[in-house]
Amino acid sequence: MNLQIRNAALLAAVLAGWAATSAAQTAPATGGPAPAARVVKPPKLTRFVQAEYPEAERAAGPNAAVVLQISISADGKVADVTVAQSASVAFDDAAVAAAKQFEFEPAEVDGVPVPVRIQYRYEFVLQAPVAAPVPTTADFEGTVRLRKSGDPLPGVVVDLDGQTSKTDAAGHFHFAEVTPGTHPVALSGSGFTPTATEETFEAGQHYDATYDVELVATMAPGDQVDFELVIVDTSMKKSMAATTVNSEQGARVAGTGGDVIKVVENLPGVARSSVGSSALVVWGAAGTDTRVYIDDVHVPLLYHEGGFRSVIHSDLVKSVELEPGGYGAAHGRGLGGLVSVGLKPLEADGYHGSLALDAIDAAGSIRGSVGDKFRFAGAVRRSHLDWVLSQVTSRDVGEFVPIPRYWDSQLRAAWVPHEGESVEVGGLLSSDSIARSVAETDPAQAKRESKSTGFERIYVRYEKHLDAGGVVTATPFFGFDHSRVASLFGAVPAALNNEATVYGMRTAWTGKPEEFVSVTTGIDAEVVQNDVKRSGSITSPPREGDIHVFGQAPSDLINADKWNTTNASLAPFVQADFSLIDGKVHLVPGARVEPVLVRASRRTPVSGSQPSLGTMNEQTFVEPRLAARWAITERFGVRAAVGVYHQPPLAEDLSAVFGNPQLGASRAVHYLLGGNVKLTDSLSFETTGFLSEQSDLATRSPYATPIEAQALIQKGLGRAYGGQVLLRQDLSDRFFGWVSYSIVRSERTDGTSQSYRPFDFDQTHVLTVLASYDLGAGFETGARFRYSTGYPRTPVIAAVYDSRTDSFQPVFGAHNSIRVPPFYEFDVRVSKHFSIGNDAKVEVYLDVQNVTDHPNPEEIIYNYNFSRKSYITGLPILPVLGGKLTW
Amino acid sequence: MVNLRAATVLLMAAVLCTAACRPTIEGRASVVDSDRVLAVRSMPVEAMANAPVKYQALYVGADGPAAAKDLDWALCSARKPLAAPGFVAQACFARKGDKLTPLGHGDQASGMLAKDACQVFGPMPPAPMKGEPNGRAADADTTGGYYEPVRLLVAGASESEDVYFAGMSRLICGLGGATAEQSAQYALRYRPNENPVLASVVRVQSGADVPLSLAASSTLLRVQPGERLTLRASWAVCPSKPKCGDGICSPRETVKDCMQDCGVAAPKGCTGAESYAYLDPAQGAVIDRRESIRVSWFANAGDFAFDRTGRSEAEASQTDTDNDWTAPNTQGEVFLWVVIHDDRGGVGWESYKLDVRR
Question: Which residues from B are below 8 Å from A392, CB to CB?
């Protein structure tokens, strides 16, 4: 008999490789900490010594395995070997003796050699000698790589019809003697979804395969002295209905102008925004019901006015994730969805930056490091569309078009005292303004409006990866939001100023107390103080549910109020992920306790010299959340979730004149059920059905003489239900794309006595088909097709002449009983990359929206007496030529 | 190679077109091609609750004045729900109802404003429901005014063919939610509105302007078919500063200062852009403002350049406004109606007739 020791698994190196690469590739956990920004190089075995098969054990059986703990010094020498899992004394001694002679290239963190301790599984296999000299087997080797980066992936278990091999640090695996025929090949590992394929072998042939896989794991390394790399179970962070898009793909989607975050508009469950709108309508929820986080910092906006750009530079964005509903206990205060923008980890890999320019704006970014411990990044963007327009037309276009002017800036600085521990200080700034005036011969039709919105945030983010594999994060933040709207329609003014001071902090600990359970717990605190001033008609600007006609003068019955509010909440949350049945079933219960304190400065309108009397409303909610998913097979899984959500009232609604200062929180319950099928290694199909029931919504008082300070009442109900599907081809062989379709019915009722009517932003059908293809030679092309049902509108069935205003007053039919015609648009994008030297490249792109120049109706307009109607159409063909220099 | 300049221009044109390509819809307010009420005047334009008022309508059709006997008048005591669209409650637009007080038929009517008009339509809180706190007072318009509506109906063969119009009487109710000092100042300085009056409507031409001929005139101004005329409507000059003895009791004049203008027997207003006291709800102060004036132009043939013209509050010192009218290509008599509105609910009008002939 011939003795052979099968190549053993280098577990720790595998884990190191996995962790390092996955930290750079995967999305941050939902609400969880982002991985540290470090370049981790695992130790590499350079000299292997084969152990002698103990003669004393030959009778015991052909196979045995010893798991060793090998301490490797910073110079790659084996400092110590201990037995972690014994096979027998003889096997242990043989394995230790061999391992002590191993030599390694040392592990490195950010280029610095570090001592590490690894686990090594030494397998002893007794095999019969191959007698036949004529080749009767095939030789099969290959490489497993990360799909997105092409980096080799160590530690992957490759199963060839029962035989296994683990990839080494170079991602390489090898099967020396493969029986001819077709065999199943399965790749598995605890960091990615198992995949399988088939290979056919012929005797005497050599086969070299390459498999690209995608990881979902994150890393939590310990310190440098005792360098243990642990895979943190990410299952609990996998959301039930989340769609994540990484920055590389997002920037290549046609119609986004290279803006990664704009890709959110193309995800399932998201309604199309009308032209000029930056609202995000997710699963039929109001735009204000969807919360937006940049890492753990809550911001009020995702897009600049007009929706041309997002509020954060794409170079800083690692991924953007949309959870339309059913999200975990770590987040709350919103009845709708959750958008999480993950920032790229700051790395010590030299200086990099970019400059970008197109007809809409200009932007730049830079990142770098000072030494190993201090890293920074910054970006700035400013629109110049107004200037460009002034160069190509002599007319004051501002009279006709509200041209948005915006800028945003981000600055980040991180100090990394130790690997696994970092402190980041950052600032996020965004500002928008729109101003226009329309002169008319009729003074009642002259229009003037200005709008200014923005936010500022300063945050500190502390993150520490614990030795046991846990992660602790704390992100206090502070900032301001402002929104100033002033308009004059004839003599009718409308002004709303809202200045908010925001204090917030999110802390979280994620750990794995037991092998089968991961836990995240923390506190989500937020205090918002608003100073609000408003004047004008109570229906201007209109709120959801108001019946109005686009472009018509607002009611000239006006009022004014000035008030301030405080909205505070300190919500502890906990969520566990029980991994059952070999990880096939995950049960994720969670709970959040949300005490909400709402204070308004004035209980009743100003009346003479009567002093104002404030009001305070305290409510505490327990929000249970439960999610489950079951991987029925390696390729097919199902999932379900249910959760309770509350949202405090908007400061604008707490006016004693225009709203109701005693409004409480609104409530929603989300239910969802879905499944996913992995059709191929890169092609997946997901479907989700959902129901969202909303109650205690603030709606207009329907009464002619409402009770004082109750212009809004909390009797509104809402429901949204439907389904979505996503057929997604991840980047593979130069191609990626997806087809998403949502069928959603969102309805509201303004009081218990009224029947449901379509939500103002309901879009029953939304279809998006997009694709991007790398043509080679630096050329890429992409296309996008979008179709959506038109928004509901209330028909005008008659009109009455009002002599006082010398205008016709529309008489409306059933509320939201007609719709604007459907929208469809085809966009294309072509780009070309050039390399400049070794370190720089230039991208030139042409992004053309509405290639077919289809006149999409956006709003219904009427003639003077509402006897005839027509449509305002949206963007005609809109080519945007731009370029970007990156180094 | 892509022409950057061309691409940019294309982009700009596209963006411009986004808003500038608003479609034109058929139908002009200035074209009278069917029977309709062009204006409703309350006399006095501003009155206290339970006061008598007279109403007059300008009811015309494609052939000139329409048969006013068709007009069915009723005062309406329904208040529009707070956030409901429009200016008048839908309950007012019915043939009859418990909120409607019939006033008769014809181009004129008279009646009494509601006793509780200042509670229903004004700043006085409405009577609370049993066990509930006060109801919400009505909001004032941009001039601080409150209004009680009068409904006009031209009944059709069935209710679905009924056509409705609305007029308003401005209410003298004082202020709501004001301090004692604000109320006192307001009471001292506020002057009830006066219906505006068209001083003249002339054809502007080199040399001397030519007044249009009133509809009742036997001698008509003659114009060529297709001829383009510049018309100018003017109204009275109202004093921006008080001047005792000018016959106008302005906000800064009192009985004590100027018995001549502000005496009980003759607290006269001005028929142009008057000054008036206004409680600014945003500032919380009583300030002096000027009315804006709008002129609505109508004709049963030909085209006006603009349906309405006027002078905003900032232009109150200017007392005329121009519009172009193009005569029809066909010969015949053409009616022109010019209606003047101030923004405190005052209305005045004149009817003219032109002879379009070669």
Answer: 8-9, 12
Domain A338-886: which CATH number of 1.20.1290.10, 2.60.120.10, 2.40.10.500, 2.40.170.20: 2.40.170.20
Residue ranges with strand state E in A240-358 = 243-246, 291-294, 297-299, 317-323, 338-343, 352-358
Domain residue extents for chain A: 2-219, 338-886
Distance set, CA A352 to CA A347, A430, B308 (Å): 10, 23, 61
Per-residue model confidence as pLDDT tens digits over A715-734 = 999 999 999 999 998 877 78
Note whether B231 and B140 are same-domain residues: no
Tokens 């206090």 correspond to A476
Same domain (yes/no): B149, B39: yes
Same fold yes or no, A2-219 and A338-886: no
| Rounded Cα distance, B213 and B211, in Å | 6
Q: Domain tally for chain B?
A: 2
Q: Is the dihedral of CA B182, B187, B188, B190 positive or negative?
A: positive
pLDDT, averaged across chain B = 88
Which amino acid is located at A880 in the chain? Answer: V
Q: Which residue carries 């995950």 as its tokens?
A: A586
Contacts of A55 (CB under 8 A, 6+ apart): none
On whether both B56 and B120 belong to a single domain, the answer is yes
Check A606 against B284: CB less than 8 A apart: yes
Q: Establish how many alpha carbons lie within 13 A of residue B283's alpha carbon, considering only the half-sphere containing its beta carbon.
A: 8
Q: Looking at beta carbons, which residues of chain A come within 8 Å of B12?
A: 359, 388-389, 392-393
Pick one of 2.60.40.1120, 2.60.40.10, 2.30.30.280, 3.40.1390.20 as the CATH number of A2-219: 2.60.40.1120
- Tokens 């928008």 map to which residue? A432
As for the ipTM of the complex, it is: 0.90
Burial class (CB in 10 A: 0-12, 13-18, 19+), B136: buried
> Tell me, what's the pLDDT at B113?
95
Least CB–CB distance from B81: residue in A491, A492, A702: A702
Dihedral angle computed from the Cα positions of residues A847, A849, A850 and A856, in that order, rounded to the nearest 10 degrees: 180
Best of A308, A803, A852 to substitute, by most chain B Cβ atoms within 10 angstroms, is A803
* CATH code of the domain containing B224: 2.60.40.4060
Contact B7 A846 (CB under 8 A): yes
Interatomic CA distance for residues A544 and A281, integer angstroms: 12
| Alpha-carbon gap, residue B296 to B349, rounded angstroms | 9
pLDDT of B51 > 90? The answer is yes
Amino acid identity at B41: R
Question: Angle at the Cα of B245 (from B244 to B247), degrees rounded to 5?
Answer: 110
- Amino acid letter at A464? K
Q: List all residues of chain A from 421 to 460 with a beta carbon under 8 Å from chain B.
A: 441-446
B83 & B127 share domain: yes
Maximum alpha-carbon separation in chain A? 111
Q: Which two tokens mark B56?
A: 């007059």
Its domain, for residue B47, covers 34-173
**DSSP secondary structure string for all residues of A548-599:** --TTPPPPSEEEEEEEEEEEEEEEEEEEEEEEETTTTEEEEEEEEEEEEEEE
Q: What is the mean pLDDT of residues A192-205?
A: 69
Q: Does B40 map to a domain?
A: yes
Distance from C-alpha of A431 to C-alpha of A451, rounded to nearest angstrom: 11
List A residues 495-524 in contact with B (Cβ-Cβ < 8 A). 495
Q: Classify the C-alpha dihedral B107-B112-B117-B122 as positive or negative.
A: positive
What are A218's two structure tokens? Answer: 């994150």
Least confident segment among A250-259, A385-394, B253-262: A385-394
| Whole-number pLDDT of residue A51 | 80
Task: Say yes or no to pLDDT of A464 above 80.
Answer: yes
Residues B77 and B147 in one domain: yes
Residues B218 and B344 in one domain: yes
Closest Cα partner for A848 from B144, B14, B256? Answer: B14
H helices present in A159-246, as ranges: none
